[in-house]
């Protein structure tokens, strides 16, 4: 039993004209071939299945084609200049196409990663003159898989190869190729195949195979391939294997994933028509059919994204978007502007996040359908057209009847200045209330703590100190709150020892932490000492029992003793 080749191998393009898409690459290469100005090294990069290896083989064939041996001048007997296409009839073209040429090397870098393979297969053989062809061609596929040592060994040869050598490097991960290699090559970026060109290619393959495939099936295959021609041709081969000469949408559903058929289009049409009932019925029907809901939502989001870009800039902005689907969705929602589509994408993205963990997986998508059908849209700073007109610039209400608005920060400062007596000028305006200092505002948010408020909340502060330190409360309980100035709190003590204890770094920080915990702001602490007038008997040298007792308690608490 013979082995049947896949479609992408059976119908591999034999000329540049057969390659779907990549016009920018084909035109440049053909011009270089026709003018005889080929570079010595090329780097092809882009997504998988977009024709990199195919174009590399075409380049190897055209570079050795007998028709182009006099490239740059007249190449045939009819006086026509060569257009860079291989003739596919000369011995060189036939040898390269059959894979039997000894002068064309195809190296898979994924299985030849080490430096020894590069030395053996490239560096040593490149010095040898071609066997039969004019140029010796090295096609290195997945070149990013080479090791660092292999890249270093290849670098010198790639920079200064013999005149007969031609290198074509292909990769899907250009970021892994060293910049030193990239700089020595002419780089060509391959793009995903647009949907219309993909459908045309698939239609041509179906005709060659004597098959009839419905248009909607071909477009479903193109959408499923996501611009990858090899994937599309593989799926088409599966459809041909069903054994029918006419492939309909119903028959194709046996091969195509359910979410890649008309399900997405039907759901989006209901969504854009704001038909919540139909949208929810479709979601539940898909769940019952076993559709992978997260994957389905991803395809819906991807299709909406393509539709958004298609609406913004046509095929140039969304080359892989199905224009027929775009026309269908536009008819379903003529008012689908970019703002509405953007909101729909964000809403669906939000519903997608919890699908794998929610108890009811489809609930998030159902709620998104209801929200979008209801026409909910994000808040916009621009008032809608139906909004009432803005009030005139001048005051519509007399100032005396208009309620006062809250003053700004500068306004509050002026109000306070008007209510506080000015030094040396008497009282200006209404006299400030006693608690005005406590109600003042600093930086528009942090209240200033006055002495009265500090005395009122002192038990809370003292409790914090007791909780943090066992001995410091013995000193603090003798303090008098003398003043508060901004964030500075001054404690006055009868004895100098008490003030010195409070001013110690560790005790001061503990007090400041307690104040911050109670009042919610950073405050500084300072202990002062003001000796009162001594009684007559004390002045004459008599003992003061109360003072001696207090000093004794402090010294005992802090581990000292009276001398």
Structure notes:
The chain is α/β, with parallel strands linked by helices. The chain has 5 domains: 7-189, Rossmann fold, CATH 3.40.50; 195-256, Helicase, Ruva Protein, domain 3 (Orthogonal Bundle); 266-373, Up-down Bundle (Zinc Finger, Delta Prime, domain 3); 409-421 and 428-445, no CATH class; 451-535 and 543-557, DnaA, N-terminal domain (GMP Synthetase, Chain A, domain 3, 2-Layer Sandwich), CATH 3.30.300.180. It has helices at 7-10, 23-35, 52-64, 91-98, 115-123, 148-159, 179-182, 195-208, 215-225, 229-240, 249-252, 263-272, 276-288, 293-313, 323-332, 338-352, 363-373, 409-419, 436-439, 451-456, 458-468, 472-476, 496-503, 505-519, 536-539, 545-557; strands at 41-45, 104-108, 136-141, 165-171, 186-189, 212-213, 246-247, 441-442, 446-447, 480-485, 488-493, 524-529. The strands form 4 sheets. The protein has a 5-stranded parallel sheet with strand order 2-3-4-1-5, covered by helices on one side. Strands 10-11-12 form a 3-stranded mixed sheet. Helix 14 (293-313) packs antiparallel against helix 16 (338-352). The longest helix is centred in the middle third of the chain and has 21 residues, at 293-313. It starts with 6 loop residues before the first helix and ends in a 6-residue tail after the last helix.
Tell me about the biggest sheet?
A: 5 strands, parallel
Q: Which shape, going by the Cα principal axes?
A: elongated
What is the CATH superfamily classification of the largest domain? P-loop containing nucleotide triphosphate hydrolases
- Rg measurement, Å: 43 Å
Helix tally?
A: 26
Extended strand count: 12
- The end-to-end distance, rounded to whole angstroms, is 115 Å
Classify the secondary structure makeup into a structural class: alpha/beta
Low-pLDDT residue intervals, each spanning 5 or more residues: 73-77, 378-446, 534-543
CATH topology of the largest domain: Rossmann fold
Level-1 CATH class name of the largest domain? Alpha Beta
CATH architectural type of the largest domain: 3-Layer(aba) Sandwich
Q: What average pLDDT do the residues reach?
A: 77
Tell me the strand order in the biggest sheet. Answer: 2-3-4-1-5
Which percent bin holds the helix content? 40-55%
